[in-house]
Amino acid sequence: MAGLFLEEPYWVQNVHYLKATLTRYGLTFSAKGSTIDLFLHQLQVAETLRRFKIHGILVIGGFEAFHALLQLAEQREDYPEFCIPMTVLPATISNNVPGTDFSLGADTALNEITEICDRIRQSAQGTKRRVFIVETMGGYCGYLATAAGLAGGCDAAYIHEEPFDIKDLLRDLEILKSKMDHGKIERGLILRNEKANYNYTTDFLFRYVSQRRFG
């Protein structure tokens, strides 16, 4: 939508076109940390829906898209224009859309991470007593790290949903070292979700593991 006309966007201009359109009509998406500021101008959105006689909304996206439509639905008592069918087509590698088991892109990302972990293991066949740390995407959702850890047979996976501290890290490393000492494994693999913990970052894990003596 632009001005007083409805325009059909081309594939190559979808990203910039969508961002400009949403901002123009009050659908402002802004994510910072765990806070999401959506729909700052509900009146403007309602006016747009009424002007163009829009009778349904289909949003393709992740948690932000879900939260956006949820806020619209919560304003239905104040804005009759929002009393229309609204649907979210889950499309995010984070797989964090409430009410869905899988979202578009999540399986592809999971397979990619699993394949990368397999490549790390294969390339490290000639090494012994080494620990590899892999950081996965997913925001605050630990689906990718958990599922990839199970599929790739990693020794530990750290996610935001399961809080951990330095004692947990020390315990896991001691278990890993014990496995190496007893010849059960030759090398270790640790996965960490990108926002698993504010303090225990991937760089911290790297330095902490490097300080331990596995050799």
In round numbers, the mean pLDDT is 82
Strand order of the largest sheet: 5-7-6
CATH architecture of the largest domain: 3-Layer(aba) Sandwich
Rounded to an integer in angstroms, the radius of gyration calculated over CA atoms is 23 Å
CATH superfamily of the largest domain, called what? Phosphofructokinase domain
Q: List the domain count as a whole number.
A: 2
* Tally of DSSP β-strands: 7
Q: What string, H for helix and E for strand, traces the elements in order?
A: HEEHEHEHEHEHEH
Fill in the CATH topology of the largest domain.
Rossmann fold
What percent of residues are in strands?
Answer: 15-25%
Separation of the first and last Cα atoms: 63 Å
Q: Tally the helices: what do you get?
A: 7
Task: Break the fold down into its secondary structure elements and pairings.
Blueprint: H1 14-24, E1 30-32, E2 35-37, H2 42-51, E3 57-61, H3 63-74, E4 86-90, H4 106-123, E5 130-136, H5 143-152, E6 156-158, H6 166-181, E7 187-193, H7 202-211
Parallel strand pairs: 3-4, 5-7, 6-7
Antiparallel strand pairs: 1-2
Helix pairs in contact: 4-5
Write up what this structure looks like.
With about 220 residues, the protein is an alpha/beta fold. The protein folds into 2 domains: about 80 residues, Rossmann fold, CATH 3.40.50.450; about 110 residues, Phosphofructokinase domain (Rossmann fold), CATH 3.40.50. The protein has a 3-stranded parallel beta sheet with strand order 5-7-6, sandwiched between helices. A two-stranded antiparallel sheet has the order 1-2. Strands 3-4 form a two-stranded parallel ribbon. Strand 6, helix 6 and strand 7 form a beta-alpha-beta unit. About 10% of the residues have low confidence.
